[in-house]
Amino acid sequence: MRLSDQSTAYDEAVNASGAAPADSPPRFLPVTESPYEAAAPPAPPTAAADQRAPGDGPGLLLFQAAAILLALFFLATAGTNPDWPVLSRGFTGIVLEALPFVLLGALVSGFIEVFVPRERITALLPARASYTVLLAGLLGVVFPVCECAVIPVVRRLMRKGVPLSAAIAYLLAGPIVNPIVASSTAVAYAFHPEVAKIVAIRMMAGYAIAVAVGALLGELFSPRRALLPGAVEDTPVDGCGCHTCPADQPPRRGFFGRIFTALTAAADDFVEIGRFLILGAFFAGVAQSFIDYRHMTVLTSTPSLSIGLMMALAVGLNLCSEADAFVAASFQNTLPLSAQMAFMVLGPMLDIKLLLMYTALFRRRMIFALATLVLVLVFASMRAFAYFSAGAA
Amino acid sequence: MRAAPGYLTRLLQLTIVVAWLGAYGWLLSGDPAPRYTRYLNAGFTPLVYGGLALLAVLLIAPLGRRSTQMPRLGQLTVWVRTAVMLLPLVYLGAAHSETLGAAAAGKRGVVQRTTTGALSGRSAGPRAEGDEGATLVELHENPDAQLGRRVETEGMVYHGPEVPEGHFVLFRFAITCCVADAQPVAVLVRHASADLVEIDSWVRVRGLLDRLEVEGEESLRIQADAVEQIPPPDSPYLNLF
């Protein structure tokens, strides 16, 4: 069965609305049967699934509810809490600073979703796997995605025949190596004397780690061993509600109709992504209110400890990649740059939210291998960065 | 979980966008200084206007969309997401008049921040309306030029066990990007009635600038001949570049 013979409902709708023809760009990838199809018999729909409305899982709902209750508790006890100004100011300050970038990311994502057919993405990738993984790590430059949206996009890419190694490289690098994250990082460190260097290191570290992990996992796992049965199918994605799913947003006709469709997708994504920024900023504010910087000298003088702490914070705060630089930058007067960089590189690749979303795509062994590799490589690279920075100083 | 009605999802989405649009508009207003300077570096005016513009563009979506076109989400999901999205606005309203004070300054090592070189090469950003005399950042920027001269500056008062006898610490928080990264900038003040100056109060100090060695480090100090209580400024934070 040739993939090119299959045309999705979304692609038909896009083509009918006057979007660029799906087959106009030259394809580098051979159009053959996808290895993922052989591994993935479609799961039969269930009656319960038809009636159940998509939404957040119980764990995520509970987490959000707990955060809301905790926030209200702090609000109610503000009069007796000497750390209240730090918490409230830190929380609101981070949100106010980062929200414009979340808005920008949502708008860009919405417009890409409507105006750029996915065949354009796969057509850019060469057929040879080793070149593909190197190029896949840079795809975010032309097709930026947030970490929330990347999984449905990667599913679609693999359905189109992109190798597992390249898909993982894009999964990890796409949310970091893109113009929006670069600019938000530059703004977050706008008044740092080495802002260009910080942006460059973040981009290069994100790219290198993503490509390394993608190449390694591509060697260690076959698609059958890596992916859940039925994971790579053209079915609506309810994992995060980011509305990169074609079934959710059939585009309107005409140029202005498509702009409106892009805006509706952006509005949905704004709420989807913005809430993770808000949750992360809240817990960052809580963390800052507890921290006594007078006792931080042991951390600042021990790079491994500070890097480990910021990595743990990155996994726990679940920030989006457009906004995490602002949280990292809030520590620029207290923690070394290597620790801040560890936060900014790890967060878009691995956090609690992403781990939950990975379970919709990968088998447990694959998730374990991916998480372990990412953690080890981020720690090792940032530790090396700390070592060489100290030597240079 | 039952699906939320489309009109409810649309109404809540509209509420979120309108609420944030109003919040950014409110933050840009204020006299003499825009209200956002209580949260962000004053140099971030384009960022705040950018947020306002993007929210205005996004408003088109919930306004022009039919309820039947809204994403189908569980009721609880919709309500919880809305509550999370509006949470910062609740904090904005409840805590707008709050400022970081002596408790936060103490945790951030305010006494160590009196040492020369505490700014680590940073420089002063835009001054706020109403700042009189030299700001504490300006004193730290180039202390040698002002040593032995009479200076006048303003700030908040800190007392603590690590402060030398007969002194208090005069500080203000300086922000790089937002209040989350705020660090105190401080000088010691020697005054005959130092113990009587109330902690967390705003004062204007006039006196001679010199240095004092504290625990092996040289700190900036003002030998004050006048300490005057003043009302809190509209923009309590200094800006760093």
Task: Describe it.
The complex is a heterodimer of chains A (393) and B (241). Chain A is mainly α and 393 residues long. Chain A is built from 19 helices and no strands. In chain B, a hairpin with a 7-residue loop joins strand 2 and strand 3 (183-190). Chain B is an alpha/beta fold. Classes of the chains: A mainly alpha (393), B alpha/beta (241). At the A-B interface, helix 4, helix 5, helix 13 and helix 16 of A face helix 1, helix 2, helix 3, helix 4 and helix 5 of B.
Which tags fit this structure?
heterodimer, A: 393 residues, mainly alpha, disordered N terminus, B: 241 residues, alpha/beta, 5-stranded mixed beta barrel, 31% helix, elongated
Secondary structure topology:
The complex is a heterodimer of chains A (393) and B (241).
Chain A (H helix, E strand, L loop, with lengths): L8 H8 L18 H5 L7 H5 L6 H19 L7 H32 L2 H6 L5 H8 L10 H13 L4 H10 L5 H10 L6 H26 L2 H4 L28 H36 L6 H4 L2 H15 L6 H6 L7 H10 L5 H7 L5 H29 L1
Chain B lengths: L5 H23 L16 H14 L1 H5 L10 H21 L6 H6 L28 H6 L8 E9 L8 E9 L7 E8 L11 E13 L2 E13 L8 E2 L2
Parallel strand pairs in B: 2-6, 3-5
Antiparallel strand pairs in B: 1-2, 1-4, 2-3, 4-5
Helix pairs in contact in B: 1-2, 1-4
What sort of overall outline of chain A do the alpha carbons produce when their principal axes are compared? Answer: globular
Poorly predicted sequence stretches spanning 5 or more consecutive residues of chain B: none
Shape of chain B: elongated
Radius of gyration of chain B, in angstroms, nearest whole number: 23 Å
Order of helices and strands of chain A: HHHHHHHHHHHHHHHHHHH
